[in-house]
Amino acid sequence: MIIPWQEIEAQTLDNLIESFVLREGTDYGEHERSLEQKVADVKRQLQRGEAVLVWSELHETVNIMPRGQFHD
């Protein structure tokens, strides 16, 4: 289920994004970027609709994924 990012408290959203970008295996390309830059990038992707917040009832977790990879 997609969670509208606009309905998440700002600090909570920042914490979710930070947790997402700190996961091992998250690749941001050839050049290293700061945590703040990574968080800002993901936040922009959410705002543009390129990425979505997804709640997994099975795992009881929230994840961020590209919109094209989310299947209802």
TrEMBL record:
Q: Which InterPro entries match?
A: UPF0270, YehU-like_sf
Which HAMAP family would you find in this protein's record?
UPF0270 (MF_00690)
Q: Which family, according to UniProt?
A: Belongs to the UPF0270 family.
Q: What NCBIfam families does the record point to?
A: PRK04966.1
Can you say what this protein is called? UPF0270 protein Q8Y70_01770
- What are the leading ranks of the lineage? Bacteria, Pseudomonadati, Pseudomonadota, Gammaproteobacteria, Enterobacterales
